[in-house]
Amino acid sequence: MSVISEVKCGRCDRKYSGFRSRCPYCGARRSKRGKHADEADNAKAKLVIGIVLLVVLIGAVMVLIITSLPNPDETDEQAGVSDPSPGMTDSEAGNTTLVTEDTSPSPSPSPSPSAVIEVAAVFIFWTNDGYDRTDVTMDYIGQTFVFDFRTVPETDDADREDMEVVWESSDEEIFMVVDGSVTAISPGSATLSCTVDGVEATCVIRVPNKTA
Fold it and tell me: What is the pLDDT of residues 76-87, one digit of tens each?
């Protein structure tokens, strides 16, 4: 039987391998000049090669299908199913899953320490108008003015409870002060001081020689 790759040149009538695209003798293209040596033998060879290719293709498909199927042993292990002991029913065997509960106490959050406000500056203000004061003249002897203080940074009532606040008069014969409440005693001038956590603010208090 002739080999399917053997062809005969249509130009020089010489035979050569059909794997060549041109005749090695005259250079003619096989597609144009060349032809098969024996059509019957070539048809048989084509059939044999086709069958071989079909068998190879079927074998490759079967191997691919087999390798893609899941392994029964691996499936059982992943599902966590163990073989029941002899004498045990399926319902008694069941799927046993061990659940470990973490009973260790979780750490409780530690309380955050309260922020300590460091006073940078202090200002004395008169509560009647809310303006900061450094010099105040009272109207008459016996009159009472109420003063308060501001801090930088600003503080609220809760923060003030932890602060050390001291009100003082430089001359109690001119005026007296109790918790920021100033009472004129006699004519003259003296200094009102307010010290908050060691930071001091001052205001001059003047008392005229007048009575109510």
Answer: 556 554 555 555
Q: Which residues pair with 176 in a beta bridge?
A: 183
**pLDDT per position as a tens digit, 106-154:** 666 554 545 678 999 999 999 999 999 999 999 999 999 999 999 999 9
CB-based burial label for 106 (10 Å; 0-12, 13-18, 19+): exposed
- β-pairing, 199-207 vs 135-137, is parallel
Q: Which amino acid is at 79?
A: A
Give burial (CB, 10 Å; 0-12/13-18/19+) of 167: middle
Q: Confirm if 194 and 133 have CB atoms less than 8 A apart.
A: no
pTM of the model: 0.46
One-letter identity of residue 201: A
The half-sphere exposure of 141 on its side-chain side, counting CA atoms within 13 A, is 10
Bridge-partner residues for 17, per DSSP? 6
| Token representation of residue 167 | 């009100």
Q: Helix, strand, or coil here: 18? A: coil
Give the separation between CA 177 and CA 160, rounded to whole angstroms: 19
